[in-house]
Amino acid sequence: MDFVETEGDTIDAAIENALRLLGVEREKVTVEIVSEGRKGILGFGSQKAKIRAQLRKSAVSFEDPRARPASVEPPSLTVEASEVVAKAKKVLEEILRLMGVQATVQQKSTGDETILEVHADNSGLLIGRKGQTLEALQYLITRIAGERQGGDGPHIVIDIENYRERRRRSLEDMALRLGEKAKRQRKTQTVDALSAADRRIIHAALQDDPWVSTKSLGQGSYRRLLIIPEGDRRKKDETPQEKQSPRGQSDGGKASGPAAPAEADDDVERGR
Length: 272
Description:
This protein is α+β, with helices and mostly antiparallel strands and 272 residues long. It is built from ten helices and nine strands.
């Protein structure tokens, strides 16, 4: 079962009913609001809210045991890559020592990434407000260790007490809640001052929802992000040939103009 239609006293209640029937978490589905419902007068004329919840493609493939990839050991690092990682770890430990922080650094590999996990008593100081100190450490280590020279080096990620995973989950939850609010209120929702990495997470969380779009606004490293309610994007993405009449012309006999190019920043962050 890939989708369900459920009702509830409120939209949130209808969503909870759908998640219970599908047996998945909120981030595994996209939600289309069929009816917002109404309270009525003195109990008369009331109508329940109705939604349609559909499993995301990633969730469908994960639930299918046949589509689940076999566990594969992460590839071993080359000699050059191992030297880069060892240098990055040594530099990180030296920076922490100069900061007066008692910490340990553990190395682990996941796919094409090598994670240097920092464990310290005062981890909040190292993470900083919205992860800004952590991002500064990431930048320094990347520059000093010479990561990805020529694009072939290992991808080194600095993490502190699994902060990046917690931050990702928090941003995805916020993106889904604001997406529902944008669709329910038919108003654009604004998220202030996000780094490029955080914006990519929100773009990815909403890219499968055809009823909203996302767009970055502003300049510099930290920009605002807009979550915009739209009609079904799948209809807007039809090719000109699909919209042409049988004679090969668009409606009214006029050639349709080229579509406006998307902003480069959004294309990169959405991963399209």
